[in-house]
Amino acid sequence: MQLFENLINVLFPKVCAGCNSYLLSNENVICTVCRHEIPLTNHYLNPENEAFKKFYGKIPLKFASTLVYYHKKGIVQEMIHSLKYRGHEEIGTVLGQWKAEDLKTLSISSDFDEIIPVPLHEKRLRERGYNQVTQFGLALSENLKINYNPNLLYRNIYSKTQVKKNLLKRSEVIGNLFEVSFTEKDHNKHFLLIDDVLTTGSTLEACSRELLKIPGAKISIVCMAMSHS
Ligand SMILES: [Zn+2]
Description:
Strand order of the largest sheet: 1-7-6-2-3
Helix content: 25-40%
Number of helices: 10
Order of helices and strands: HHHEHHEHHEEHHEEHE
Largest sheet: 5 strands, parallel
Bound molecules: zinc ion
Mean pLDDT: 89
């Protein structure tokens, strides 16, 4: 079996998601060099960290954190690109496993009831075939023993007539991009909302506003990466 695996590796060598160099047999998804060079935020121990501060005065969060920094032309950009556009879902799994190790050290993680992914646009989902945050969420779910729920929050699908009707109220349309469908069993839960890259935070803010319509809801946010502002 090992011989067969080695043969497969020779015929179809796996490459690093960060630098595209060939991976050694003991390396998984990311090479050792990239693992050391990847810009970790290491801010999760600080409750008032820069990810959390992005939401100041916008939505009441319990906690926010991202695993790494996103730089243009860097390792992380290459990884996120491979994850989103080249079908490399295993990158999400690795990042989720890393982030789970951080979160395990925090007492707040025992308060999370459910992991909620930012829903992907229906059209994108059809083109791509997967939501790029799914594997990240499933890895967090498995390692932290928290339920993964992709059905609570969804993207609004507007019919053409509805869009026309709302054209004059563009801000209203944007404000209602997401919707929650909940019952009483979803009340009083602490939701861990997850996404790939935190930039302005407006998508996560819109999602949080919807989740906060659930009575007693508490929100925390975890993303793979964040851009420096
Ligand atoms: Zn590499």
